[in-house]
Recover the amino acids of this structure.
């Protein structure tokens, strides 16, 4: 159990660092991660399975909604998983870093969510299962004053909802 | 101040608290005041204003609690005038004359001796019906004459309104411009860690007094804006389902969604006549600007393109709209006729420009400018000329004009795990001041004058 938790964190931290390039340990962990991690091992088809083994988020360049090569790799895995477990409805959240104004970031987050939605739809995921929402800069996961945090906050997160 | 203006003064006068005001200059027998010929005046158009030394002895009060109210009124007036940067209230300890009867001429030499250029005297008298009568006189010390005098009747609870109204009368008489003290600010109160900020719509007087929370913090709320009547605000809220633009009546608490749009709506503002709300509608990857008529519920589209068009703000005559768009790459400010047509780009400096807001005087557009790792607050003319940066730093955002267009309020965020605070700055770029709030605060919007 403990080792599962640790591995889970390690995977997530590694992903974050790759995306961030600059290595600064951002003090903040997403509280949702902890609850997920402590919930137990990743049963195939479970939410943990999706988060741990597929990856629920992709990162964006500053002021961009273009999906990066790394983002495409993640979304390809997401599309495959979502088609295997087709009873899930889900929400694509779009987020922006804090280095923009509030209104613009709401629109930018929406644009990122839309880009992910379009990508997943092009990979065969049914559009009717997806909804999008933008949180702009309102829900950062990493809090500091440099790019190591901003690059983690420029993200989309695919959040699984109720199974139908 | 006319009776008409008092009647239309909104939520407090609904309770019939300000029942009358009348000019009293010259109405006191035996004073034989000289008209006009003022020596003291302030030219607010100058960037470098020498604050006018002004004396504000405590208003003469009746017995008991009334004299405390009188003292509080005086202090609020002095604080308002001082914060404007245009006045320098003189330390009361320096006063030579102790004013006990405001119907007698002040001993002007005593006030000249401490270099007061203006003097305000006042009196609060309890009426038989329980209301307070407040009288004040503004004196030109060197010309030795009365510049203005007014009296007001109100229930004692409204003493702050009276102080603000008197502050505005003094400001207007000495600067020749309308004041802004009898006004409110709606903003977003922030609490909790940054990843899970709780945000509440909050309203307060422009000086930070009388804080009242309008929402409980269950839903994320952003960008509140006043209607011209000051009775309603429009804002964005993340409730259950799609985030939307809402209207909230601040008196009744009644809340409703603006329009029935097929997607997220955000960044709302009222038209100057209060009849329409202009906002962004998310359509796929793009945001376009729409207007909804609040009576007919008819909607019309103002912009349409493969871009983010947002932060619309009407000119005070309602004829034009400024907004930000990234249609040219980075966000820039554009101006378009309120009836549609091609938009004109007006911002051309280095960096990007966001959150344009039109001055109530029509002569300036304030904005947030992003560049070189900094977020600045600036102003430019509506044709894009005359750009000036007023304050710069790590993160300054979201300017809103005082009702007279002379002062901007905005929020400043230190980043990290800290939180935003509210600040004001004159459009001259001088007199930056922190605005007191109970907690972190962002997205301020200044109301029009309440009276």
């Amino acid at each position: 159990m403990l080792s599962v938790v640790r591995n889970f964190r390690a995977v997530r931290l590694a992903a974050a660092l790759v995306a961030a390039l600059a290595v600064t340990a951002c003090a903040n962990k997403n509280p949702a991660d902890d609850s997920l991690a402590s919930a137990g091992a990743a049963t195939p088809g479970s939410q943990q399975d999706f988060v741990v083994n597929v990856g629920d988020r992709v990162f964006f360049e500053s002021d961009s909604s273009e999906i990066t090569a790394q983002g495409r790799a993640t979304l390809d895995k997401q599309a495959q998983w979502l088609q295997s477990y087709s009873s899930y409805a889900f929400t694509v959240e779009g987020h922006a870093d804090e280095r923009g104004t509030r209104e613009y970031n709401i629109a930018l987050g929406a644009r990122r969510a839309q880009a992910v939605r379009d990508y997943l739809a092009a990979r065969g995921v049914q559009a009717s299962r997806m909804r999008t929402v933008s949180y702009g800069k309102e829900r950062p996961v990493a809090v500091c004053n440099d790019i190591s945090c901003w690059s983690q906050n420029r993200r989309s997160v695919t959040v699984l909802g109720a199974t139908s | 101040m006319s009776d008409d203006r008092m009647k239309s003064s909104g939520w407090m006068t609904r309770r019939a608290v300000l029942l009358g005001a009348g000019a009293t200059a010259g109405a006191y027998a035996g004073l034989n005041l000289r008209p006009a010929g003022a020596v003291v005046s302030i030219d607010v158009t100058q960037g470098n204003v020498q604050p006018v030394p002004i004396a504000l002895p405590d208003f003469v009060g009746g017995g008991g609690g009334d004299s405390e109210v009188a003292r509080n009124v005086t202090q609020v007036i002095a604080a308002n005038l001082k914060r404007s940067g245009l006045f320098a209230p003189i330390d009361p300890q320096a006063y030579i004359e102790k004013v006990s009867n405001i119907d007698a001429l002040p001993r002007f030499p005593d006030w000249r001796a401490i270099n007061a250029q203006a003097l305000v005297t006042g009196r609060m008298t309890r009426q038989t019906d329980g209301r307070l009568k407040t009288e004040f006189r503004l004196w030109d010390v060197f010309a030795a004459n009365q510049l203005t005098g007014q009296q007001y009747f109100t229930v004692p609870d409204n003493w702050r309104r009276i102080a603000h109204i008197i502050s505005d009368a003094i400001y207007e008489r000495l600067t020749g411009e309308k004041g802004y003290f009898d006004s409110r600010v709606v903003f977003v109160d922030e609490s909790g860690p940054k990843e899970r900020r709780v945000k509440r719509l909050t309203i307060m007087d422009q000086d930070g007094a009388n804080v009242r929370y309008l929402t409980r913090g269950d839903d994320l709320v952003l960008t509140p804006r006043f209607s011209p009547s000051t009775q309603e605000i429009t804002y964005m809220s993340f409730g259950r389902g799609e985030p939307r633009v809402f209207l909230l009546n601040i008196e009744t608490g009644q809340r409703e969604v603006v329009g029935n749009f097929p997607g997220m709506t955000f960044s709302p503002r009222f038209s100057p006549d209060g009849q329409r709300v202009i906002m962004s509608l998310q359509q796929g990857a793009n945001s376009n600007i729409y207007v909804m008529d609040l009576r007919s519920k008819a909607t019309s589209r103002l912009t349409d393109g493969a871009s983010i068009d947002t932060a619309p703000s009407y000119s005070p005559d309602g004829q034009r709209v400024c907004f930000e768009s990234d249609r040219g790459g980075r966000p820039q400010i554009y101006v378009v006729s309120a009836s549609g047509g091609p938009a004109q780009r007006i911002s051309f400096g280095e960096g990007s420009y966001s959150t344009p807001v039109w001055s109530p005087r029509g002569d300036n557009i304030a904005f947030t400018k992003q560049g070189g790792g900094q977020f600045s607050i600036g102003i430019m003319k509506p044709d894009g000329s005359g750009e000036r940066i007023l304050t710069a730093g790590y993160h300054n955002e979201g300017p809103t004009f005082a009702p007279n267009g002379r002062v901007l309020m905005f929020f400043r965020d230190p980043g990290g795990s800290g939180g935003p605070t509210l600040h004001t700055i004159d459009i001259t770029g001088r007199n930056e001041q922190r605005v007191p709030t109970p907690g972190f605060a962002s997205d301020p919007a200044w109301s029009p004058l309440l009276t």
Notes: The first helix of chain A runs from residue 2 to 20. Confidence is low (pLDDT under 50) at residues 1-39 of chain A. Chain A is about 50% helix and 15% strand.
